[in-house]
Every structure is written in C-alpha cells, then in structure tokens.
Amino acid sequence: MRSESLDGGLAGDAVPRAAQRQGPEGWSLAANPASGREMGGLEPAPYRQPRGFINLNFLSPGTLRPGALDPWLALLGPDLAMADSASAETGQPLMRQWLRRVMLLARELLQVAAIPVFDALEVVSCQPQPGKPGAWQAVIAVPTEDHVPVRVYEIAFGVAFRVTAWMMTTTPKDEGREKLFAALSQDAIEPIKKLVPSGKSTMHLLRAAHTRGIPFRSLGGGVYQLGWGARRRLTDRSTTDRDSAVGSRLAHSKALSIRVLHLAGLPAPVHEVVNGLDAARAAAERLGWPVVVKPVDRDRGEGVSVDVDAARLNQAFEEALRLSSAKHVIVERQVEGVCHRLFLVSGRLLYAAKRLPIGVRGDGIRSVEALVAAELAEQAGLPPWRRSALRPIDDLARSALAAAGLQATSVPEAGRFVPLRRIESTAWGGVTEEVSDIVHPENLRVAIAAAELIGLDVAGIDIISPDISEPWHRNGAVINEVNFAPLLGGSEVARRHLGEFLARLLDGDGRIPVEAFTGGEAAWRAALDRRGALGGDGAGVFVTSAARTLDGDGQDIPMPLASLYRRARALLLSAKVRVLLLVVQDTEWLATGMPVDRIDSFVGVDSELHQHGSPAQPITADEDRRLRALLSTHLRQGG
Predict the structure, then answer these.
(1) Strand ranges, E, within 378-519
(2) What residues are paired with 157 via a beta bridge?
(3) According to DSSP H, which parts of 40-173 are helical?
(4) Cβ neighbours, 10 Å, residue 526
(5) How many angstroms from the chain centroid is the CA of residue 566?
(6) What is the pLDDT of residue 18?
(7) What is the pLDDT of residues 521-537, one digit of tens each?
(8) Considering the entire predicted model, what is its pTM?
C-alpha cells in the first residue's frame, strides 16, 4: 500500500491479488488454507448473510494512526462512527485496528453502490508476511452475494485501502472533504453501480429484511427471493410475483391506463395523445389553458410540465417528446390540487403521502434565499449520496415562488412551506407528509379499484386532490397515474412502513425448518427416519446429501451438482420444499461455508465422514471438530 495524494485519483491496484480458486455461486475464495482453518471457530458476532473468505496481501501504509480515521468515518456516515473503539480494541495491534476501519469504509462503499452487504466485513487474521518487510496478509470474512463479480469487492477494498492511508495524514477540512467525496464517487461508487445496476427500492427493502432476520438471495437482473422454499416470495424493486405482466404493460403507458380507468367509470384526467406541436396546441385549445404536458411512457414525474400556457407549450412539448420512447406526448387538462401517493399492497392501503415539491420552511426571520443558502451549507457537509435534492434558487424556483405569491427576498412566516418547484419529481426531489389517517374512504375505494383493474398487487396510485380527506366527486380530484414498481423506502414516511410491507408479503420471517445430520450412511438413514417422524407421507420434506436428493414423495431428483452446498441452495429456491433435511458427509462446508445462515438442529450421527471429492480419504479429528463447531455457530437460538 502506498500513502499518496488524492489529486491523482484512486485508480490502480491497491490490493495485489492473492492466488484464488473459484468457489460456489461464482464467489472467489482464498486459496490459502489458513482461511479454511479459521472458518470453523469464527463467530465474534451474530450474522445473517452467508459468508466467504478472501485473502488480502498489502503493504503497510507507514505510520499507523487508526484513531485519525474516526472523524473522517463519522463524516461519511453515522453508522461508521467508532464509538466503541476504545473498549473493543484494547490490546489490539495498530494494523488490525486500521484494517478494521478499512473494512468499515469498504462496506459503506458497497452499500452506497447498492450492493446488499449488511453484515460486518470481519478481520479473521492479520499478520506480517514472512521474509517481506512491510508486507502483510489478512483473511477477511465477507458476506457473499450471488451475481456480484469479485471485481466489485476488489474496487471497494482497493479504494478503501488507499483512502484510509491518505486520511491518516489529513484532517477533514473543506478542501480535503470535497476531494474525498469526489474520489469515493468517481473511483468506487459509480464503477460498482455500472457493474451491478440496482433498483432504487431494492436496497431499502433488503435492508429491512436483513434487520428482521429474513433471508434473501439475488436471482440476477435485480430480482430477489425473500425467504426460503414454500415460504419464499420473489421481488423486483417493490413489485412481487403477484403482479401481472399485463398490469405492468398497462401501467407503463399513461394513455392506456387512463383509458381503462375511464372505461371502468373511475375518476381520471381528460387528455389527448399527440405526436406533433401543432396537434399539441390544438389539443390544449380544446382542453383549455393551462395544461399539463408529459411523455406518454415515463414515470416518476420525468418530463412533466405543469401550468403550461401558449408561450411555454413549445418548450414543454419538446422536453416530453425527447423523453418518450414511443415519441408520443400527453396534453392533459390541469386540475387543482396536490399529488397524493396511495401505496397499496394486496388490496389494502400501506400508507398515503402528500407529495410536495422540494422546498424550505420559513422561520419568520430569514428570507427565502437565506433559508436556501443555510440549507445548502448544511448539506455541503454531507457526502453527495446523503444530500437532499435542494438546489440554489434558479428560474424554476423563481417561477414556483411567484405561483406561491413570494419572491426570493420574501420572509415567509414561521412554519410555512415554501416550494421551490411546482411539482415533486424524481429529478427535482420533494418532501412527503404522511396523510394515511385522513384519506377519505371513497378515495381509497377508487384507488383499490384502479389497482385491481390494472392487475397490480403492489401499486402506487397518484390522486391529484386539493384535499385528500374529501371525496373525489366533491372537489374534482382525479387518479393521475397508476404506477408499477412504485418507489418504496425513498422517504422517511415510506421507510416507516417497510416492516408492514414485509409482513404482508411473507409468512413470518419466510424461513422453513432446516435440519442437518453429520456422518456416513448412518446419517442418511437418520435423515430418512426424521422425514418419516415429521408425519403424513412426508410431502414437502426434502432430503439431500452432496450426491443424492429425495423430493417430498421420496423420489430421487437427478441434479448436475456434486455439492451439498449447491444442492441445498437450489432446493431453497423451490416453493415445494416445506422442510429441508441436509446430510453432511464430507468437508465441503469447511471451504464453502454454510449454505444457510441458520439451522434449526443438527445431529452428529457418527464420524464416518470423508474429504470432499475424495470418498476414500477420511476426515481428520481436527476437521471433524471444526465442522461441528461450524454447525454449532449456525444453530438457531434454542435449537
């Protein structure tokens, strides 16, 4: 490792690559047998994600001052503050203290880049390399995630190594702070995002699942399985396996969805679809000025212009047309009111939020421009990924202020919300206020009817209304949009309801019973006896070893997998599996780790186990001990 300025960026190999071999699910495990020896006894803290081990070879950054990193880490995020460092690190070598902070930063980079690594990156061992002055080697326990290339971890580790070496020689002043933010974004976060794109709702949902002990697994392409076997559910952002493909198509087209709402007698906007400026102007004349102009096939407020008059039509139309894949634009009669998002799950309201544009609140003392300047100064102290979407006052802000009867120099009374955009959108940001308790039953009825009509189990129904506590037919409110995959977790209001969302989605924590039996042929027979003891004909009880798998009817299931780890992981994807019995007959798990984070019980039938891939070579006493220790650490509390 070299300690160097951030001026030149952070590109390059910060961590020389160790010899590696390919492990299960595409994860690269360290080739050094030391990682395997550590695996059985490592359990310093509870964890919920399957883990692999990786070797890191690195050079000492020079003078070690681990405590100098703490102000920097606290600046990057409250979760990184080392409040427990004094007690937790008593007697630990400085190199290990530094490396622990390197791993904290690496995990933060992964999370900001939407890689769902929530458990700690643990330093298993850290020691000098023999005969190489200044060279060190470490073994790190890393939460594994399917379909995440090893390059993602290399980027996160490499940048974290270089940045922390630089941090120890620099105090967190404004200039250095901005260099740090830029370096982390350009050299780590953005490159990782390009390697593994993710939906905006996904990390919020997975974080909530992890907190609640719900197992999850990536199936690729942004699709995740929550839970196991018969209790599993599939999600993609906020959508689930209960949402229809037809519903997705209808919701994606504003013109189609609004047409269906009209046909069903539900309140919907009056609009026309056009593909030329002259047609747009004619439509606006028929509908009456001002109008709303938007792309026919975009969501989240993209390309939407409100209060469009004859003078602004050309600009609004061109913007909407540019963003439309179909090259069609909606010209819509504008209605009075504010957008209210009714987030529905399985025909019931999860929450309702009033969606206000980005803005500030008056204090009765400062002008709007002073309030904005103060907020921007506070935001500047945060990493870019934690900042709000507030911008300096511009022409759009002046237009919004004028519509509210204000100017930049106005001093709004205390508590007054001052909008700096006319509408909330993904591009401009916004503020949400929960209104779940005041939604009029009639407004909720038409929202539920709209979701059912379109065919969505999870839907964001946007109602434009002056007052959501009044029924739509009294104040002219309309269902403005039916949203497929509505953003979930992007606001504090939404995050408060993530637990309820998961409760509706899953049966409990989504887990099925998983039991393990260790030994030779006697272990297989013990698993079969257990299957019979579970009652009935064993339907839904699957039994597997590394070489043989029985389904719920006791029939053999051929698999092209000579691996208990991979067979177990495969069976957890099946909705037919109600109970999984695992027969452990070799040392595979000492290299791969456990296929699950928790088992309900395990029975050591005998010691007739063998080396993985070498049936004629028996397990050693030390390996037997470590395997039993590994199973014990994964045993469910009270198991």
Answers:
(1) 417-419, 430-434, 458-465, 478-483, 514-518
(2) none
(3) 70-76, 85-88, 94-112, 150-167
(4) 18
(5) 25
(6) 36
(7) 999 999 999 998 886 55
(8) 0.86
Please give the C-alpha separations between residue 157 and each of 103, 127, 626, in angstroms, as whole numbers: 7, 18, 29
DSSP 220: E
Nearest to 424 by CA among 386, 469, 460: 460
Partners of 287 in beta bridges: none
Q: Which helix or strand (DSSP H or E) is residue 614 part of? A: strand 614-618
Helix (H) or strand (E) holding 627: helix 621-633
Q: Is the dihedral of CA 422, 424, 428, 434 positive or negative?
A: positive
- How far apart, in whole angstroms, are the C-alpha atoms of residue 592 and residue 567? 13
State the Cα–Cα distance between residues 32 and 138, nearest whole angstrom: 10
pLDDT in tens, 300-354: 677 888 889 999 999 999 999 998 888 999 999 999 999 999 999 999 999 999 9
Do the bridges between strand 20-22 and strand 51-59 make them parallel or antiparallel, or are there none, so unpaired? Answer: unpaired
Which long-range CB contacts under 8 A does 334-338 form with residues at least 24 apart? 334/290, 334/291, 334/292, 334/306, 334/307, 334/308, 335/269, 335/464, 335/476, 335/477, 335/478, 336/466, 336/475, 336/476, 337/464, 337/465, 337/466, 337/467, 337/475, 337/476, 337/477, 338/464, 338/465, 338/466
- Which amino acid is residue 626, in one-letter code? R
Residue 171, classified by CB atoms within 10 Å of its CB into exposed (0-12), middle (13-18) or buried (19+), is exposed
What is the rounded CA–CA span in Å between residue 515 and residue 639? 10
**Residues 54/144, Cβ–Cβ less than 8 Å:** no
Alpha-carbon gap, residue 218 to 236, rounded angstroms: 10
Q: What are 329's strand-pairing partners?
A: 274, 295
Full DSSP string of 543-588: EE-SS-EE-TTS-B---S---HHHHHHHHTT-TT-SEEEEEE-BSH
- Give the C-alpha distances (Å, rounded to integers) separating 487 from 145, 199, 349, 455, 484: 23, 9, 15, 18, 9
Cβ proximity of 389 and 358 under 8 Å: yes
Placement of tokens 């699709």 in the chain: 223
